[in-house]
């Protein structure tokens, strides 16, 4: 379908923005000869007919892998340096045509660790290759500031050779960083921060006129309480930005088809976006899933959380094989109490010294144990993450927010209790939350397998066994 569409005649006019103009608030003036990039299809009726005929092809579900992979040589020579490998994996190869050879909107669901970020990068490179607008902008939205920071650092290095700049706009952004966004090709932000920008979109009309791609990471949060903000932001972006391409990606998109229908194949289209769903076969490591059900000693959820500490050492000794362990806890206090319990009762795993501002965390690290949550300083969190990735820390106790986006996998993932503290009470994790946490098991750079253990009450054991079957 994409090959046929690419043969349609295209009319392109090129414009150039004056060097000294305000890039946020510049509009082309045909009379003065100043320029901006606009691409028009001169045969929209023919295009619509082709898309209608091909509507059944817009959904692809991949349930098995094949040996067919693409080399990065399919890209122009100057773009290959973005990727630290010589060939794409199977998931990326199957999605390549839809992402790089097409301008259609896409919704992609693929297991954690399968290389979904590469699809975002291919979409950016496609826009760069079109050469319609040297000052084009890409907007990347992620649900957490930590994930935004990770993407900023990664893409700043990757795209520097192509003179593509990256800026960040979050609640922690300084005035200087906000000014850099004006000159950046890629804007990294959170839905909440960008919501504030879109509310005043008329003040930034020229900025929105330059945004050509919207990249939405962890699209599954649409189902959550904070998903309403993302939904509003995406709706505004669809209305404000003409010719906007949208790519929405997650490891756990239960309602991918519904999202595709909402986004649409392209501007004003009644057809759904291309939907690419990749099965568990595309996970880079084999994952074993175990559910343990325990009888609570009381109806008090805090007491049950403390009770589970006594079962942790047995689970770690049985399933960790001496490798890294990531333990998801329900609250910040639970993270610290769990780390303290393991520090006092677990035989020494590895000895390391890490200079941290948090004295308890620094003390626990001497036995290779740490905790990680938003209450720590940013510097402490980064040092702990680096130490865990480098195997200087063997056990990390964290809140569930670490499951969203940050590339911090472990051989063994333990979900210690299946309730979290939400709005002044304990509530069961959503299925999406569980899938995100389970997905952190397995380190493709080190092993070919991983283990995920869910510790819950006997009452909910069958529920989580059912969820585990479909992860």
| Major sheet | 8 strands, parallel
In the sheet with the most strands, the strands line up as 3-10-4-9-8-5-7-6
Based on CA inertia axes, which overall geometry fits?
globular
SS-derived structural category: alpha/beta
Determine the number of helices (DSSP H or I, runs of at least 4 residues): 16
- First and last CA, distance: 32 Å
CA-atom Rg in angstroms? 24 Å
pLDDT < 50 stretches:
1-58
Query: What do the pLDDT scores average to?
Result: 81
State the oligomer: single chain
The number of distinct β-strands equals 18
What level of helicity do the residues show? 25-40%
Percentage of residues in strands: 15-25%
Task: Describe the protein's architecture and organization.
It is a single chain. The protein has 471 residues and is α/β, with parallel strands linked by helices. The protein contains 16 helices and 18 strands. It has helices spanning 2-6, 44-53, 90-100, 117-130, 145-158, 175-182, 191-199, 205-210, 227-240, 256-263, 301-319, 332-345, 359-365, 378-389, 431-438, 461-469; strands at residues 10-13, 38-41, 59-62, 106-109, 137-141, 166-169, 186-189, 211-217, 245-250, 274-278, 286-294, 325-329, 369-372, 395-399, 412-416, 419-422, 425-428, 449-457. It has an eight-stranded parallel sheet, sandwiched between helices. Strands 11-18-15-12-14-13 form a six-stranded parallel sheet, sandwiched between helices. Strands 1-2 form a two-stranded antiparallel sheet. β6, α6 (175-182) and β7 form a beta-alpha-beta unit. α3 (90-100) runs parallel beside α4 and α11 (301-319) crosses α12 (332-345). The longest helix has 19 residues, at 301-319. The radius of gyration is 24 Å and the shape is globular. Mean pLDDT is 81; it is low at 1-58.
């Amino acid at each position: 379908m994409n090959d046929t569409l690419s043969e349609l005649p295209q009319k392109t006019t090129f414009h150039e923005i004056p060097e000294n103009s305000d890039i946020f608030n510049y509009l082309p003036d045909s009379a003065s000869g100043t320029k901006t990039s606009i691409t028009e299809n001169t045969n929209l009726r023919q295009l619509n007919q082709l898309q209608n005929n091909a509507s059944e092809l817009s959904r692809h579900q991949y349930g098995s892998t094949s040996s067919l992979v693409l080399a990065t040589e399919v890209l122009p020579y100057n773009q290959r340096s973005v990727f630290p490998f010589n060939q794409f994996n199977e998931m990326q190869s199957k999605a390549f045509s839809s992402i790089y050879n097409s301008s259609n909107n896409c919704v992609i669901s693929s297991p954690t660790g399968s290389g979904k970020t590469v699809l975002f990068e291919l979409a950016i490179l496609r826009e760069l290759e079109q050469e319609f607008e040297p000052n084009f902008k890409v907007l990347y939205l992620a649900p957490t500031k930590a994930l935004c920071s990770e993407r900023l650092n990664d893409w700043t290095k990757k795209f520097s050779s192509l003179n593509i700049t990256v800026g960040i706009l979050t609640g922690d952004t300084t005035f200087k960083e906000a000014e850099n966004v004006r000159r950046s090709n890629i804007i990294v932000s959170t839905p909440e921060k960008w919501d504030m920008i879109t509310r005043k979109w008329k003040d930034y009309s020229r900025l929105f006129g330059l945004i050509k791609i919207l990249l939405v990471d962890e699209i599954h949060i649409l189902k959550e309480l904070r998903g309403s903000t993302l939904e509003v932001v995406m709706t505004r972006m669809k209305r404000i930005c003409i010719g906007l391409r949208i790519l929405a990606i997650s490891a756990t998109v239960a309602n991918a088809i519904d999202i595709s229908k909402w986004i649409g194949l392209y501007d004003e289209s009644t057809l759904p976006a291309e939907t690419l769903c990749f099965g568990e076969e595309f996970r880079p490591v084999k994952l074993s899933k175990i559910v343990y059900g325990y009888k609570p000693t009381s109806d008090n959820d805090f007491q049950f959380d403390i009770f589970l500490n006594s079962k942790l050492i047995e689970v770690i000794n049985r399933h960790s094989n001496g490798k890294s362990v990531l333990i998801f806890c329900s609250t910040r206090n639970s993270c610290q109490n769990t780390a303290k319990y393991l520090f006092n009762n677990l035989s020494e795993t590895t000895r390391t010294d890490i200079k941290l501002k948090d004295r308890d965390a620094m003390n626990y690290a001497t036995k290779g144990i740490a905790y990680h949550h938003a209450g720590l300083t940013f510097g402490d969190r980064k040092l702990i993450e680096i130490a865990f990735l480098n195997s200087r820390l063997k056990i990390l106790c964290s809140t569930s927010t670490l499951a969203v986006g940050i590339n911090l996998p472990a051989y063994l993932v333990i979900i210690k209790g299946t309730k979290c503290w939400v709005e002044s009470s304990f509530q069961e994790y959503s299925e999406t939350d569980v899938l995100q946490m389970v997905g952190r098991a397995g380190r493709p750079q080190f092993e070919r397998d991983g283990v995920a253990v869910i510790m819950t009450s006997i009452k909910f054991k069958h529920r989580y066994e059912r969820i585990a079957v479909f992860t």
